[in-house]
């Protein structure tokens, strides 16, 4: 009996998590058809449903606009269980740079057993790193270093620490885990990354971009192809101030991912990110004139740069042009 009740609870939560609770009780197929015929996307309605749990008591950060210069965004991470929103960690994204490149630092800290009845220590899953990106529409990553670990006191449990250094070159992603290397081909030259989409959505809102298509790196080790980030609608929403503000809503869909909805406010800040049974809620966003020191940028470059040397392989005599680098030795002569 208890097993059946647990299963019913699981199914009920799954229905809420996928947005299907918005369907009229007239059958699954007919319900979907009804919503779609009205131009309603179940994923978008699911996002609104989740926001109802997050808005009570929420205060919008009073200052800060999206900036193409340096900015820092801090988010609270929530697990969404049934009618509850349980604080499960935090996420920080720092960006700087101008011209052709942008530099990001990020830290994601999740409490592994948040919202459960498990007693004892709360184990944390921590992912931190830095990434150098092209300053294009999708913030395509070029080089990165990511440190992942599970801990209860800041230090990694034995066997859980993992360092991933990666580069993108000539249509290929090279992941270096120290003991092994993994190569992944990229069908599309347009690439983005999971946490970078927070900033990508802000740029789309500011520049009125309707849609982007790309391949996406999830935590810099999994590659998801055929992704689409698309503007869905404008929504007037009261976030507790008594004065509704306009949001631009963007939705990520694609192969192998749960639909993710980005809510960008009238200052072009991504206030909410809703996906599956978790949500990111902006706690603070600040733009400043501070920059990452040149020494730090050089340090990151040295850590993640490709180990290969490029340059002239054969050099001819002065004034002589060497056209081909194909060399072989035939008997005792060079040819």
What does this protein structure show overall?
The protein is an alpha+beta fold. It folds into two domains: 1-40, no CATH class; 43-304, no CATH class. 18% of the residues lie in helices and 41% in strands. It is built from five helices and 17 strands. The protein has helices spanning 2-17, 28-37, 42-54, 197-207, 294-304, and strands at residues 70-81, 84-96, 101-111, 124-134, 141-151, 162-169, 172-176, 181-185, 191-193, 211-218, 222-237, 245-254, 260-264, 270-275, 278-288, 329-330, 333-334. The model is unreliable at 1-36 and 115-119 (pLDDT under 50).
Q: Averaged pLDDT, please?
A: 75
Task: Specify the overall morphology.
Answer: globular
- Integer count of domains: 2
Number of helices: 5
Classify the helix fraction into a percent range: 10-25%
Indicate the proportion of strand residues. Answer: 35-45%
The total count of strands amounts to 17
Distance between the first and last residues' Cα: 84 Å
Order of helices and strands: HHHEEEEEEEEEHEEEEEEHEE
Rg, nearest Å: 24 Å
Structural class: alpha+beta
Largest sheet: 15 strands, mixed
Strand numbers in spatial order across the main sheet: 8-7-6-5-4-3-2-1-15-14-13-12-11-10-9
Structure described in brief:
The chain is α+β, with helices and mostly antiparallel strands.
What is the fold's blueprint, element by element?
Layout: H1 2-17, H2 28-37, H3 42-54, E1 70-81, E2 84-96, E3 101-111, E4 124-134, E5 141-151, E6 162-169, E7 172-176, E8 181-185, E9 191-193, H4 197-207, E10 211-218, E11 222-237, E12 245-254, E13 260-264, E14 270-275, E15 278-288, H5 294-304, E16 329-330, E17 333-334
Parallel strand pairs: 9-10
Antiparallel strand pairs: 1-2, 1-15, 2-3, 3-4, 4-5, 5-6, 6-7, 7-8, 10-11, 11-12, 12-13, 13-14, 14-15, 16-17
């Amino acid at each position: 009996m208890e097993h059946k009740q647990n299963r019913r609870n699981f199914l009920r939560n799954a229905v809420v998590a996928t947005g299907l609770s918005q369907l009229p009780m007239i059958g699954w197929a007919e319900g979907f058809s009804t919503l779609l015929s009205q131009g309603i996307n179940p994923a978008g309605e699911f996002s609104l449903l989740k926001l109802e749990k997050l808005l009570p008591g929420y205060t919008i950060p009073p200052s800060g606009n999206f900036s193409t210069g340096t900015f820092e965004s801090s988010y609270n991470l929530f697990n969404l269980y049934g009618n509850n929103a349980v604080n499960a960690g935090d996420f920080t994204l720092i960006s700087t740079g101008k011209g052709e490149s942008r530099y990001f630092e990020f830290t994601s800290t999740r409490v592994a057993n948040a919202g459960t009845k498990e007693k004892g220590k709360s184990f944390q899953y921590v992912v931190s790193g830095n990434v150098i990106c092209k300053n294009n529409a999708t913030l395509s990553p070029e080089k990165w270093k990511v440190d992942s670990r599970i801990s209860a006191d800041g230090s990694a449990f034995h066997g859980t620490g993992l360092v991933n250094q990666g580069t993108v070159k000539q249509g290929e992603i090279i992941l270096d885990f120290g003991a092994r290397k993994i190569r992944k081909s990229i069908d599309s030259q347009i690439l983005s990354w999971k946490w970078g989409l927070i900033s990508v959505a802000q740029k789309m809102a500011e520049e009125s971009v309707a849609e982007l298509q790309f391949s996406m790196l999830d935590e810099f080790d999994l590659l998801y192809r055929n992704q689409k980030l698309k503007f869905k609608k404008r929504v007037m929403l009261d976030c507790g101030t008594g004065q509704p503000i306009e949001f631009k809503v963007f939705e990520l869909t694609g192969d192998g991912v749960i639909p993710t909805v980005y809510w960008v406010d009238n200052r072009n800040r991504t206030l909410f990110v809703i996906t599956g049974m978790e949500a990111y809620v902006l706690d603070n966003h600040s733009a400043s004139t501070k920059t990452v020191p040149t020494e730090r940028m050089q340090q990151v470059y040295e850590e993640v740069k490709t180990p290969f040397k490029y340059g002239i392989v054969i050099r001819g005599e002065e004034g002589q042009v060497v056209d081909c680098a194909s060399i072989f030795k035939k008997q005792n002569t060079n040819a």
